[in-house]
Write a structure and sequence with these properties.
Elements (H helix, E strand, L loop, with lengths): L3 E4 L3 E4 H15 L5 E5 L1 H4 E7 L10 E8 L1 H13 L4 E6 L2 E7 L7 E7 H11 L2
Parallel strand pairs: 3-6
Antiparallel strand pairs: 1-2, 4-5, 5-8, 6-7
Helix pairs in contact: 1-3
Amino acid sequence: MQGLMTLPGRVAMTSRWNLYGLLFVSVSVVADDAARLEYSSANDFTEISLELKSSHTLDADTVSVGITLSEEATARTTAITTLTYGKQMTLYIDGRRLSTSNVRGIMGGQFRVDVPKDLAAEWATRYLQ
Protein backbone atom coordinates (compact mmCIF):
# COMPACT_ATOMS: atom_id res chain seq x y z
CA MET A 1 0.00 0.00 0.00
CA GLN A 2 1.40 3.32 -1.00
CA GLY A 3 1.63 5.99 1.73
CA LEU A 4 1.65 3.50 4.60
CA MET A 5 4.54 3.13 6.97
CA THR A 6 4.85 0.09 9.24
CA LEU A 7 6.40 0.68 12.62
CA PRO A 8 7.61 -1.83 15.22
CA GLY A 9 4.65 -3.46 16.95
CA ARG A 10 2.73 -3.73 13.66
CA VAL A 11 1.42 -0.18 13.74
CA ALA A 12 0.71 1.37 10.34
CA MET A 13 0.38 5.10 9.82
CA THR A 14 -0.25 7.19 6.74
CA SER A 15 2.02 10.12 6.02
CA ARG A 16 -0.82 12.51 6.97
CA TRP A 17 -1.06 10.96 10.44
CA ASN A 18 2.72 11.13 10.72
CA LEU A 19 2.42 14.87 10.15
CA TYR A 20 -0.27 15.18 12.83
CA GLY A 21 1.92 13.18 15.23
CA LEU A 22 4.88 15.43 14.51
CA LEU A 23 2.73 18.53 15.07
CA PHE A 24 1.44 17.05 18.33
CA VAL A 25 4.98 16.48 19.57
CA SER A 26 6.06 19.94 18.40
CA VAL A 27 3.14 21.67 20.09
CA SER A 28 3.45 19.59 23.26
CA VAL A 29 7.14 20.40 23.70
CA VAL A 30 6.38 24.11 24.01
CA ALA A 31 3.25 23.70 26.10
CA ASP A 32 4.13 26.69 28.32
CA ASP A 33 4.49 29.05 25.36
CA ALA A 34 1.83 30.00 22.84
CA ALA A 35 1.76 27.74 19.80
CA ARG A 36 2.82 29.38 16.54
CA LEU A 37 0.62 29.32 13.45
CA GLU A 38 2.77 30.67 10.64
CA TYR A 39 1.82 31.42 7.04
CA SER A 40 3.60 32.62 3.94
CA SER A 41 1.22 34.61 1.78
CA ALA A 42 3.06 33.43 -1.35
CA ASN A 43 2.84 29.71 -0.52
CA ASP A 44 -0.10 29.23 1.84
CA PHE A 45 -2.79 31.59 0.50
CA THR A 46 -4.87 30.91 -2.59
CA GLU A 47 -6.99 34.08 -2.18
CA ILE A 48 -6.59 37.38 -0.33
CA SER A 49 -9.40 39.93 -0.23
CA LEU A 50 -9.04 43.37 1.33
CA GLU A 51 -11.88 45.27 2.96
CA LEU A 52 -10.66 48.82 2.40
CA LYS A 53 -13.38 50.63 4.30
CA SER A 54 -15.69 49.40 7.03
CA SER A 55 -17.56 50.85 9.96
CA HIS A 56 -16.52 47.73 11.93
CA THR A 57 -12.78 48.46 11.85
CA LEU A 58 -11.68 49.32 15.38
CA ASP A 59 -8.05 50.19 14.65
CA ALA A 60 -7.31 52.88 12.05
CA ASP A 61 -3.89 51.31 11.34
CA THR A 62 -5.30 47.94 10.22
CA VAL A 63 -7.30 46.54 7.31
CA SER A 64 -9.62 43.54 7.48
CA VAL A 65 -8.45 40.74 5.19
CA GLY A 66 -10.26 37.60 4.04
CA ILE A 67 -7.91 34.67 3.47
CA THR A 68 -8.41 31.33 1.73
CA LEU A 69 -5.73 28.74 2.45
CA SER A 70 -4.17 26.08 0.24
CA GLU A 71 -5.02 22.44 1.01
CA GLU A 72 -1.70 21.91 2.78
CA ALA A 73 -2.07 25.07 4.87
CA THR A 74 -5.67 24.11 5.71
CA ALA A 75 -4.53 20.68 6.98
CA ARG A 76 -1.76 22.29 9.03
CA THR A 77 -4.17 24.88 10.47
CA THR A 78 -6.77 22.27 11.41
CA ALA A 79 -4.12 20.08 13.07
CA ILE A 80 -2.57 22.91 15.07
CA THR A 81 -5.88 24.39 16.23
CA THR A 82 -7.12 20.90 17.19
CA LEU A 83 -4.01 20.26 19.27
CA THR A 84 -4.03 23.69 20.91
CA TYR A 85 -7.77 23.95 21.62
CA GLY A 86 -8.23 26.00 24.80
CA LYS A 87 -4.62 27.19 24.76
CA GLN A 88 -2.79 30.26 23.48
CA MET A 89 -1.80 30.50 19.81
CA THR A 90 0.13 33.27 18.04
CA LEU A 91 -0.61 34.04 14.38
CA TYR A 92 2.27 35.03 12.09
CA ILE A 93 1.94 36.02 8.43
CA ASP A 94 5.02 36.69 6.32
CA GLY A 95 7.14 36.73 9.47
CA ARG A 96 5.00 39.33 11.26
CA ARG A 97 3.36 38.60 14.58
CA LEU A 98 -0.27 39.67 14.20
CA SER A 99 -2.02 38.43 17.32
CA THR A 100 -2.07 35.98 20.21
CA SER A 101 -5.38 34.57 21.37
CA ASN A 102 -7.03 31.59 23.01
CA VAL A 103 -8.05 28.87 20.54
CA ARG A 104 -11.82 28.49 20.91
CA GLY A 105 -12.56 26.50 17.78
CA ILE A 106 -11.01 24.44 15.04
CA MET A 107 -9.98 26.61 12.10
CA GLY A 108 -10.45 25.49 8.53
CA GLY A 109 -9.43 26.92 5.19
CA GLN A 110 -10.95 30.41 5.38
CA PHE A 111 -10.77 33.19 7.94
CA ARG A 112 -10.66 36.97 8.40
CA VAL A 113 -7.90 38.81 10.21
CA ASP A 114 -6.88 42.44 10.72
CA VAL A 115 -3.44 43.18 9.27
CA PRO A 116 -1.37 46.37 9.42
CA LYS A 117 -2.05 48.67 6.48
CA ASP A 118 1.59 48.54 5.37
CA LEU A 119 1.39 44.73 5.04
CA ALA A 120 -1.81 45.05 3.00
CA ALA A 121 -0.10 47.65 0.79
CA GLU A 122 2.88 45.30 0.35
CA TRP A 123 0.50 42.51 -0.75
CA ALA A 124 -1.29 44.86 -3.16
CA THR A 125 2.05 45.83 -4.73
CA ARG A 126 3.23 42.22 -4.92
CA TYR A 127 0.05 40.53 -6.17
CA LEU A 128 -1.40 43.21 -8.47
CA GLN A 129 1.52 43.02 -10.89
